[in-house]
Amino acid sequence: MKSKIRIDVERVKGNVSPMIFGQFIEHMGRAIYGGVYEEGNPLSDKDGFRLDVIEKIKELSPPVLRWPGGNFASGYHWMDGIGPKENRPKKLELAWQTIESNRFGTDEFIELCRRIKSEPYICANLGWGSPEEATNWLEYCNADTDTYFANLRRENGADKPFDVKYWGLGNEIYGSWQHGHCEPEEYAHKAAEAAKMMKRTEYMGASVPIKFIVCGANNFDWDRRVLEYFYKKNYAELVDFISLHRYDSGPDYYRVLLGTIDFEHNIVACKGLIEELKKHYRTNKLPKIAFDEWNVWYKTTGERRIAKKYFRQGEDLLDELYCLRDALYVGSALNIFIRHCDIVEMANMAQLVNVIAPIFATPKESYRQPIFFPLKYYRAMHKELSLDINVISEQIAFDEKLLEEQVRKYEHNVPLHWKDSNIELRDSLKPYLGRSLSVIDASATRSSDGKSIVVSIVNRDEDSNREVEIDLLDFAPRSGKRVVITGDEPMGTSIVPSGSSISDNDYNERACFVRESMMDKVSSRFTVELPAHSILLMELR
Ligand code: AHR
After folding, report:
1. Tens of pLDDT, residues 97-121
2. How many structural domains are present in the chain?
3. List 100, 139, 202, 293, catalytic entry
4. If you take atom 7 of ligand 1, which residue's CA is the nearest one?
5. Of 86, 242, 284, 326, whose CB has the highest number of CB atoms within 10 Å?
6. Which domain range does residue 209 map to?
7. pLDDT score of 493
8. Helix (H) or strand (E) holding 56
């Protein structure tokens, strides 16, 4: 049976925010030190920026970059990272149990954002930090006043404010692993106090209007209690975004892709909650979702190292190697964001370089991982308006038979930390029994002038090519450009056993192929064939 995608160019859902193609970079492992920033490396410039890595980031062109964490943010004191480098304190960093030199700080982050043309998004420390510290950070970054923190910025060489628009009110404070973990009301109180004074700082001379991202948990109870706190206090105006995080993992092919079903439900559920509260508390403000951490995270969990003595900076931690299956997950996630453009206004893949990242850098080279390519092409090709398309797809039933097949095929692939904890692949897959996965996942956008349509289609079938009939109704394109992202082996880049260190030769960029071509025949109805485990993007005009 053929799958079908019907596209009516008139059925516009809304604007796609370019911010859904955002990124996140944290002080951990080799993301900053040994990733974007490596002083003394011949591939770096005199300021320490790895030029080869920056070039690859520019290819992804992320419109927004979240920093400095993540878990790191909740213990980070921003004043440690400004001023002459030789005076910056070296500190024990407790989130990832490493040493932080502070040689990369706010000024370096802003410089990075300027080089890659991204909006900076700073996640303030509302774990161990105070509302006062967050407010001072805003003054340092954005104030044009003749006052202490703004003058500190000038002393450090920046006369003009940094214009940081996006401010995160803490990271994952709901989690027991976090510095300053607490109950939702306690968190909400602190976040609201910070936001209130940050708003006053904005009024008193900050350069740009700021937007707040309140820390959500992707959990109905936490999210409701945090939002209710803001609404009951009449602080609805302070909530511009609520953040959601999601990671999927698994050593087999299907479990990660089945995770995309819940991924979409998370957004739908959060939207329902927001709308319900909005109605109940009679506020006009509709917060948006910032999905500010998401990705596949699988082999190198880091717990093994953390459990041991691990007190060096720039060691590998979550140096994930990705495969094509993960690229299909990324394509599906981006389709989800496009489909839910009415509520998802920002999303930040976690993370950008080395740490669970599309770009992988060794001291001698840098590579694009398979997850790089959907990010690059969706960002480059998709248009301004999301279309409400109709996808009729075959389903893959995740039944006993498929489960056993996955166990047979991928038992060898379970990570070391699973073995240590006696986690069985079979048991880990059982909760997914009875689910069915659409073989075809798609989204479509249209340019605002109505001249072109972009369709991105993921074929999640592990083994078979699939045909899809595209019906564009009254839209009759004259030409088409096609990009296919696929590879011979959907699980094929996992060359290095987990836990071992990665050498220059271990990673093969060609584990994933990208083919760009013009399409010979396009009309308002045609059939395309997608290779097994592939992504097809088409621009039709
Ligand atoms: O991205 C890695 C970590 O995942 C982040 O530090 C944290 O916010 C999440 O738990």
Report:
1. 889 999 999 999 999 999 999 999 9
2. 1
3. 293
4. 70
5. 326
6. 55-248+260-297+329-381
7. 60
8. helix 51-60
Buried b (16+ CB within 10 A) or exposed e, 31-53: bbbbbbbbeebeebeeebbbeeb
Q: CA 61, CA 259: separation in Å to the nearest integer?
A: 27
Is residue 36 one of the residues assigned to a domain?
Answer: no
Q: Given the CA of residue 95, which atom of ligand 1 is nearest to it?
A: 6
Q: Is the CB of 490 under 6 A from ligand 1?
A: no
At CA 74, angle to CA 78 and CA 159, rounded to 5? Answer: 20
Q: Is the CB of 351 under 6 A from ligand 1?
A: yes
User: Is position 314 within any domain?
Assistant: no
Q: Which protein residue's CA is at the shortest distance from atom 2 of ligand 1?
A: 70
Whichever domain contains 292, its CATH number is: 3.20.20.80
Pocket test for ligand 1, best of 24, 25, 26, 297 (most atoms within 8 A of CB): 26
293 part of the active site: yes
Q: DSSP secondary structure string, 20-37? A: GGEEE--SSTTSTBTTTB
- Mapping DSSP to helix (H, G, I), strand (E, B) and coil, where does residue 380 land? helix
Find the 246 Cα to ligand 1 centroid distance in Å: 10
Q: Is residue 275 part of a domain?
A: yes
User: What's the 3-state SS for 209-264?
Assistant: CCEEEECCCCCHHHHHHHHHHHHHCCCHHHCCEEEEEEEECCCCCHHHHHHHHHHH
- Whether residue 311 is predicted with pLDDT greater than 80 in this model: the reply is no
Share of the chain above pLDDT 70, in %: 93
- Distance CA(302)–CA(295), nearest Å, equals 16
**pTM of the predicted model, to two decimals?**
0.94
Which residue minimizes the CA distance to atom 3 of ligand 1? 70
